[in-house]
Amino acid sequence: MDKATWQKFQPAMDSFCRYLLQTHPNDNQIPQYLKQINDIVTNKQLNADEKERKKEDQKIKLKREIMKSYCEIDENRENAEVALKQENEKECLKTLKALQNKIDIDKRRVLKFGSQQGRLINKLTQNLRLKGVEICTYLASNGIVFSLSHCYALMDLWRMTSKYPKLLKCSMNLRDITRNIKLVDEICIELGW
User: Fold this and answer.
1) If 0-12 CB within 10 Å is exposed, 13-18 middle and 19+ buried, where does residue 108 land?
2) Would you tell me how many other CB atoms lie within 10 Å of the CB of residue 63?
3) Burial (CB count <10 Å: 0-12, 13-18, 19+), residue 175
4) Which of 22, 56, 94, 173 is least surrounded by CB atoms within 10 angstroms?
5) Tens digit of pLDDT per residue, the chain (193 long)?
6) Three-state SS for 70?
7) How far apart are CA 107 and CA 62, in angstroms?
8) Could you list the residue ranges forming a coiled coil in this record (predicted)?
């Protein structure tokens, strides 16, 4: 039960409990039943509050990750090789940073390619739906094995990156975005993307 519903429910429940106790003052079982009902409802409210807190914590964590990983891509640096300089500590640190940048660039590429796959899968799905063919069956018969959930995740990614192109400039894991698509949407709105 969400907080708004709980706030409407609680006064009604309190009134009902008072009514029962007033109309049946000699029934000893009513207080026990009312306590059980109250315990159940209170426990559900606590669970709902906990779930909401976890969702908010996840959103904060995702937002931090999105903002931290966002970077305008320098196309010239993207294809440059990294020299593995290791003569001293300073060179090692510089090389490590350069390699991390390469990893981040590759994560951005994974998002870009995943988004492009989602676009193609969406197009195929629309065409195949008219023929009554399921997308996974069609892909598998052509040597591409994707689960239905993966197809939907890629299509969601494509829709999300079409709506918020700046997401493609983030070096996040594909899974973090697709598993939290609603939260990512909320975050992108908050960021004004």
Assistant:
1) buried
2) 17
3) exposed
4) 22
5) 566 776 777 777 778 877 877 887 787 777 777 777 777 766 666 667 778 888 888 899 989 988 888 887 665 555 566 677 777 888 888 888 888 888 888 888 889 999 999 999 999 999 998 888 899 999 999 999 999 999 999 999 999 999 999 999 888 888 888 889 999 999 999 999 8
6) strand
7) 16
8) 34-68
Residue 24 in tokens: 């049946």
**Are 121 and 151 spatial neighbours (Cβ–Cβ below 8 Å)?**
yes
CA 164/CA 157 separation, integer angstroms: 10
Q: Which amino acid is at 55?
A: K
The residue type found at 145 is V
Residue (of 108, 100, 104) closest to 82 by Cα position: 100
Query: 147 phi and psi, to 5 degrees?
Result: -75, 165
Q: How far is CA 33 from the centre of its chain?
A: 40
What are the residues whose beta carbons fall under 8 Å from the beta carbon of 62, sequence distance 6 or more? 176, 180, 183, 184, 187
